[in-house]
Design a protein that fits this description.
The protein is an alpha/beta fold. It contains six helices and five strands. It has a five-stranded parallel beta sheet with strand order 1-5-4-2-3. Strand 4, helix 5 and strand 5 form a beta-alpha-beta unit. Helix 1 crosses helix 5 and helix 2 packs across helix 6. The longest helix has 13 residues. The termini are far apart.
């Protein structure tokens, strides 16, 4: 089956339209009250690998619903006048998510190339996340 538009084309579009920051540049923004780090990783990834301190967790599957103020799942964080720095484990999900967020109307959007893997490799601070008990 031939894809009309495969992941490589989607990533190329995102790369052409969304600001991308290296991990070191993202680290320099940690603690800036004007910047919200958005962690798109699955909870199991966060529990296993740790988190960027203070990052807001938004799994990729809920992004559109959490951004849209008309959605019953809307999160107030996305209504704030902030810069949103998206990241995932390696940079692909965050590139696509940042483009989607930008297409939906968020104006100050960027993503971290190399994702959390690059963050850790570059010596970025990491905090442990306690696993939630099953059924909680």
């Amino acid at each position: 089956m031939a894809m009309k538009k495969g992941y490589k084309a989607l990533l190329a579009e995102a790369d052409a339209e969304v600001e991308a920051l290296e991990a070191a540049a993202a680290m320099a923004l940690l603690g800036d009250e004007d910047v919200v780090f958005i962690d798109l990783r699955d909870p199991r990834e966060r529990e296993r690998d740790g988190c960027v301190p203070g990052a807001f967790s938004c799994t990729r599957g809920m992004l559109e619903f959490w951004i849209d103020p008309e959605s019953p799942y809307a999160k107030p964080v996305f209504a704030e006048d902030k810069r949103f720095l998206f990241f995932c484990a390696g940079g692909w999900r965050s590139a696509l998510a940042a483009k989607t967020a930008q297409d939906m109307g968020l104006e100050r959007v960027c993503h971290m190339t190399g994702g959390f893997t690059a963050w850790k490799a570059g010596g970025g601070p990491v905090e442990a996340l306690q696993a939630k008990p099953r059924g909680a």
